Automatic annotation (TrEMBL):
Pfam families: PITH
Family annotation (PANTHER family): AD039 HT014 THIOREDOXIN FAMILY TRP26 (PTHR12175), PITH DOMAIN-CONTAINING PROTEIN 1 (PTHR12175:SF1)
Source organism: Rhizopogon vesiculosus
InterPro entries assigned: Galactose-bd-like_sf, PITH1-like, PITH_dom, PITH_dom_sf
Listed name of the protein: PITH domain-containing protein
Amino acid sequence: MPHNHRDGHCSHESHEHDHDHSHAANDLGPNDNLFPHIDRANVVALNGTGQGSIVIKPWDQRNNEEVFLESDADDQLILRIPFTGSVRLRSLLLKAGPGDQTPTKVALFPNQPSMDFNDISDKAPVQEFNVPQDRNIAEHAVKTAKFSNVSSLTLFFPASQGADTTRIYYVGLLGHWTERKSDPVITVYEAQANLADHEKIQGTDGNFSTTQS
């Protein structure tokens, strides 16, 4: 069984890459980095050896190889990434590998928050990219018109490039975030008369006029 050594350890020395010269905006990276708008607590990895959120790293940790996500039973992997608002996606950033553990490609499915392996064969990806065997972070620019109102993004890695498992170090997303006008997940709050006294809850803008008693 090749699946009993997944504790986030990696023998590759890359500590010199952990911090680089890009420290703009308190290490948030590019102005359109969506990291602050990913609902990291609810990121899900299917057939993964760890929490999916471990590859959703802050900008200054994007080259860190000590923490990674690896596929478990075979070399397929699904990563479901919800956002805290509506996103107009521009690019996917991906660091994977090494070598044959690099996925052959990544398929993107917007707004499929519950997609699992049973659904994959029934749905065509909106876009997919071949993944190079490269230890650097690759940027894949999406067709923005097809990713203009995204509340969640599902990534499907169908196979490795020859290894028994697929390994992902970092997933980053660039684009424009806007607050949701309504969110069915928190509609329970809309009936509370004291909503305005609470700390702002994401997605309730515009709903106060409907809760007056």
